[in-house]
Amino acid sequence: MVFGFGKKRGPEPPDDDDEELELVLFQGALSGAETDLASNARLVQAGLVRAKELVSDALSRRAEMLRLEPKGKASIATFFVDGVPYPGTRMPSQAGLAVTQMLKLLAGLDIQVRDKPQKGGIKAEYEERPFVLRLNTFPVQGGGERLIVRAEEPDKRLQTPDDLGFSNDLRHKIRELAARKQGVLLGAGGPMSGVTTLTFAMVRSIDAYLYQIYCITDVEGRDLGNVSVFKTNEEDTLAQTFGRAERAEGDVLYIDPILDAETCKTVLQEAEEICFVAETRAPDAANAIVQFCKWTGNPKLVSEQVSGVASQKLIRLLCRRCRKAYRPNPKLLAKVGLPPETKVLYRPPQAEDIEDDEDVCSRCGGVGYFGRTGMIEFIEMTEDMRQVVAGGAAADAIKAQARTEKMQSFQSDGLRLVAEGKTSLEELQRAFRGK
Ligand SMILES: [Zn+2]
Asked: pTM score, two decimals?
């Protein structure tokens, strides 16, 4: 093994038999910028192999993100696998600097600039799979930079309601609301919450054979299925673009994120004529509604035009190969709110299940989890909810009303995933504890 993993047991690369780690291939800057390796021969000498080793180590452990930052005389790497941080390698700060500069060079960034944030990307290939490595650098106090690398595997992106584990109820709900051909369906979430994926899956829940769905937002290479891209004219205002989509017999319009009062007002005014699907930034569904009320200063309009808001929290999926079944005791079921007839639940393997290295699962590297899905809450603007919202209610009152009407919540959807054996009670607790 190339790097130790400290005390906390991290995922091990599959088939890790002291073989040489296969190294990632860097295939140029995402921006298409030329990277001048020849005039940076010393940097290449000091940084290229190390950068390859670090990135390969992260990819071999399925890390979706890698952070490298200076701490005293060392540079410390942290890998994030399914949202959980694991300590990665430590290296002397000079080596860390060389890796950071090398990756910046490969991404076509300015290696002379170290006191301002920069971002870029590198095309890469690892184990014959294409990756996009998205880089962000930030200056840190005391000099040096923090480097964040996000690894995206374009072929493996979650994009359908199935990938995201939408419940059947939720799918029906979204279809039903979109079928009205008016109103606003929102996906709400913070940065890195997967809100774009969530909103995209909402669009994909709508039957594109039955309804004319137009898309006027950048879907970053996601598969649109039968959704048509709607050509926008640069000189048109937002309202004019919406008007053209309506005249082109659009039923549903998937638009850019709604991030300001002006856009919010325009969308709500047009929502009589066409159904909008969009994402917005808010910690959860209730707060998205409150934000819309603030932006428009018109809770009544929001209550009339917003038809439903989804939000999600990501949760790790149990590894299918090594999850262990157990019979839950009735007290536990009652305590967590699972039906008393639940016969079997699953958990990751624990220390006592693993006697020697042979028992370590080759799929998940012994973590017990593999991949993530969303726990999804959905607030529907029912008649009763409409009155609560129109009265200018706070987020807590909206949440209380959603509970009264037994709408799908993070809690209820998370418990469904537990009952279906897709995740564990421990992971559910972790997901609610962790931010
Ligand atoms: Zn496993």
From this structure: 0.79
